[in-house]
Design a protein that fits this description.
The structure holds two protein chains of two kinds.
Chain A lengths: L1 E9 L9 H5 L5 E7 L5 E5 L9 H5 L5 E9 L2
Antiparallel strand pairs in A: 1-4, 2-3
Chain B lengths: L15 E3 L17 H16 L5 E5 L7 H4 L3 E4 L5 H11 L4 E7 H7 L1 H10 L4 E6 L2 E2 L5 E2 L18 H4 L5 H6 L4 E8 L3 H19 L4 E7 L3 H4 L3 H15 L3 E5 L2 E2 L5 H4 L1
Parallel strand pairs in B: 2-3, 2-4, 4-5, 5-9, 8-9
Antiparallel strand pairs in B: 6-7, 8-10, 10-11
Helix pairs in contact in B: 1-8, 3-5, 4-5
The chains are: A mainly beta, B alpha/beta.
The structure holds thiamine diphosphate, iron/sulfur cluster (3 copies) and magnesium ion (MG).
Chain lengths: ~80, ~270
């Protein structure tokens, strides 16, 4: 059986920590880091495995720092 | 911590379903965290990329927070004096009628100092696209009251809230220009949720397609946040915008194919 898997990659150095992407994710994949980037912003990060690659978070990110992958992956 | 959730096996170029368009210059945006200007820029550039018109598009940037738009949008751009973008765009379009010409303007720029240029370019029916970012405030200069500031809304020059008897009513310039015969397409959108972002992009695409067909002026208002000026977090500002800006600045099409869209009665909508 094939399953759709998604994943996001966040350019954490360019993230401004606005948290707008958090509300856009239907699966609460994103939370804010405790650490800060070189600009002093807490940055968005993945906190679970549930991403479906729906692109919602990337669409609303004002700084366009999220890249979204989606693929069909074979499962047993 | 993040690595444990990485599905690196799908990190292949062919599996990318969304990434920032290369037509956005690879440089950090000057906007505050969470500001809608960035998303509006990106949707505009996605449309230009999809239409393949990067070398045929000329943008006019305003005075306001988006004054530096020419640093971020990888197309030919020119900066206008405050409010004068529609006049400049008029000249550019008449010189290069086969190019796509747009202005990108804030509410202070378009609806205060530039009111005359806005109304006359619209009334002449210049074949250009106006993208109007309405955040109800002068963001760049420190959050002063704009013509678009809501009744009761606090700003640095209306610290107790806009008092209509002394400060006047907010100006719905979008509804005003929709009345003009030269204006062909008018819509009001937003960029704070995925669905709104998709609709905004569609509206921009429609406007550029209409420009290709020489239909006249298209006017796209994007109601946006100014979390710094409103003194809220970005997430709070988006909620405040939904609760306060949208009831006054109602989202949706206002004029399509040169005809005003009839407002459905409130009862019908519910
Ligand atoms: C001729 C002139 N008058 C006034 C100013 C000061 N000024 C700069 S930006 C601005 C208002 C910007 O507000 P808006 O167009 O709403 O843009 P925003 O920053 O909110 O996106 C003003 C009054 C100026 N630069 N030039
Ligand atoms: S792509 Fe969709 S599911 Fe994945 S993190 Fe973003 S919003 Fe969540
Ligand atoms: S929306 Fe973008 S900039 Fe804002 S927190 Fe999320 S990834 Fe960072
Ligand atoms: S001041 Fe307001 S409009 Fe300007 S960048 Fe900041 S949030 Fe955006
Ligand atoms: Mg403004």
């Amino acid at each position: 059986m094939a399953k759709i898997k998604g994943d996001i990659v966040i350019n954490t150095e360019r993230c401004k920590g606005c948290e707008v992407c958090l509300a856009a994710c239907p699966f609460t994949v994103i939370a804010m880091s405790k650490e800060v980037n070189s600009k002093g912003y807490h940055f968005a990060m993945k906190v679970n495995d549930e991403c479906t690659g729906c692109t919602n978070c990337a669409l609303v990110c004002p700084d366009g720092v999220i890249t979204v992958y989606r693929a069909k992956v074979a499962t047993e | 911590m993040e690595e444990q959730f990485a599905k690196t096996e799908i990190h292949k170029p062919e599996n990318i379903v969304y990434k920032k368009t290369d037509l956005m210059v690879d440089r950090p945006l000057s906007y505050c965290p969470g500001c809608g200007h960035g998303t509006a820029h990106r949707m505009l550039m996605e449309v230009i990329e999809e239409m393949g018109i990067q070398d045929k598009t000329i943008g006019v940037s305003p005075v306001g927070c988006s004054v530096l738009a020419y640093d971020f949008l990888d197309i030919d751009m020119i900066g206008a004096a405050h409010g004068r973008a529609p006049a400049l765009a008029t000249a550019i379009k008449r010189m290069w009628p086969n190019h796509f010409v747009f202005t990108y303007q804030g509410d202070g720029d378009l609806a205060a100092i530039g009111t005359a240029e806005t109304i006359h370019a619209c009334n002449r029916g210049e074949n250009i696209t106006i993208i109007f970012i309405n955040n109800g405030i002068y963001g760049m200069t420190g959050g002063q009251m704009a013509p678009t500031t809501l009744p009761g809304m606090r700003s640095s020059t209306s610290p107790y809230g806009r008092d209509v008897p002394t400060m006047g009513h907010p100006l719905k310039i979008t509804e005003l220009v929709a009345q003009l015969p030269g204006v062909y397409y008018v819509t009001r959108q937003a960029v704070h949720t995925p669905n709104n972002v998709r609709k905004t992009k569609k509206a921009i695409r429609k406007a550029f397609e209409l420009q290709k067909e020489n239909k006249g002026l298209s006017f796209i208002e994007i109601v946006s946040n100014c979390n710094s000026g409103w003194k809220m977090t970005p997430v709070q500002s988006n909620k405040w915008m939904e609760e306060n800006m949208f009831p006054f600045y109602e989202l949706g099409d206002i004029k399509v194919d040169g005809k005003l869209v009839e407002k459905k009665a409130t009862a019908e909508k519910e």
